[in-house]
Amino acid sequence: MSPTSPTEILRAPLPPPRPLRPSRSRGGPAPGALARRSAPPALALSLLLSGCASSDPPDVRVSGCPRCAGVTRVGALPQGDIDECSGVVAGGLHPDALYVHNDHGDDPRFFAVGLDGALRAEVDVAGAAAIDWEDIARGPCRTGGGSCLFLADIGDNDGERDSYTIYGVEEPDTLEGGPRASTAEVFVLSYPDGRHDAETLLIHPTTGALTLVTKVNKGTSRIYELPALPAAGAPATLVQAGSIEPPTGSARFTGGDVHPDGTGVLLRTSSHVFYYPMTPDQTVAQALAGSPCMLPSADEEQAEAIAWLPGGWDYVTVGEGKEEPIHRVSCQAP
Q1: Tens of pLDDT along 51-76?
Q2: Could you give the dihedral angle defined by the CA atoms of residues 296, 301, 304 and 306, in that order, rounded to the nearest 10 degrees?
Q3: What is the average pLDDT value for the chain, to the nearest integer?
Q4: Greater confidence, 308 or 41?
Q5: Residue range 288-331, pLDDT digits in tens
């Protein structure tokens, strides 16, 4: 079958994790990976046996989960400037569009593409800098109502930053024509307990509350929240609201999205996709304290971006790289 076929079924849930390909914003192999590859047979056998004897069954839900089909490739990012996609979110005014952006090293801008990946618009973000953009979310504008996009400059691989920034822009009214510019509201954030690397921004679709999930290579990530966006330009300190650890696979949370009707949260790691049910009276952090469902996950070399599609329970994922496939998973409500 041709690899460019839009109806190609790539994988049924759930795939095993595969090694990550280094990118220009990532390090090399995980610590110890080279040592394991070169370990003598006796040591290799010891490592294998210790791994087999370790973990308890993962804490994963088996009820109340979306019912999903397999992963389908529906398109690919276009040739050109989208060469390290790190975040994706579906449009509100344009439900047939996806907004994506590059990782660090690019200008402060984002792109609109069709569900098939065809480029529809490029938007420069005036008043913004691009240190390490890692995710994008959509929600109500700070002043209430409307549809705004929030670009998260929250990456900190080396632990060198004293503050982090969220840029808020109104979703474009139209996606026709050439490049355009949009002026950002600037929200400067810091953690109450030092520096953290993060790649996951979550905006509640009704309240506009902001949630960040940190990224670690092993162990437990932390959850930080603000009940509302601060005044533009006024520095704000996030509040720690919990901790989270994937029930299986990679510990690295690389993206997420809150369902448009506020009934659940998607989080992806470098190896899996998880769904956390949420009730109307819960915050995102409270929902993430529950046990997740495991959902189908595409086999992407650098698993980064994930977003719900409007009007149902389908979601898309995109890897980080040039001309990356756009994968769609069709689901029915829990």
Answers
A1: 333 334 458 998 999 999 999 999 99
A2: -30
A3: 86
A4: 308
A5: 999 999 999 999 989 999 999 999 999 999 999 899 999 999 99
Q: Answer for the pair 211, 241: CB distance below 8 angstroms, yes or no.
A: yes
Query: How far, in Å, CA of 134 to CA of 198, rounded?
Result: 8
Q: Which long-range contacts (CB under 8 A, 24 or more apart) does 221-227 make?
A: 221/245, 221/251, 221/253, 222/196, 223/284, 223/285, 223/288, 224/191, 224/196, 225/283, 225/284, 225/285, 226/189
How many Å separate Cα 118 from the centre of its chain? 21
Return the closest-CA partner of residue 201 out of 225, 177, 228.
Answer: 225
Answer yes or no: are the C-beta atoms of 259 and 203 closer than 8 Å.
Answer: no
For residues 149-176, give the mean pLDDT: 96
CA-based nearest residue to 90, from 310, 312, 332: 310
DSSP string for 72-130: EEEEEPPSSS--SEEEEEE-SS-TTEEEEEE-TTS-SEEEEEETT--EEEEEEEET---
Helix spans in the chain (H)? 33-37, 41-52, 284-288
Residue 42's pLDDT band, with cuts at 50, 70 and 90, is very low
Q: Which residues contact 36 (CB under 8 A, 6 or more apart)?
A: 44, 47
Chain centre to alpha carbon of residue 328: 15
Question: According to the model, what pLDDT value does residue 58 have?
Answer: 54
Number of neighbours of residue 213 by Cβ within 10 angstroms = 28
pTM for the model: 0.83
Are 48 and 111 contacting, i.e. CB atoms less than 8 angstroms apart? no
* 256 SS3 class: strand
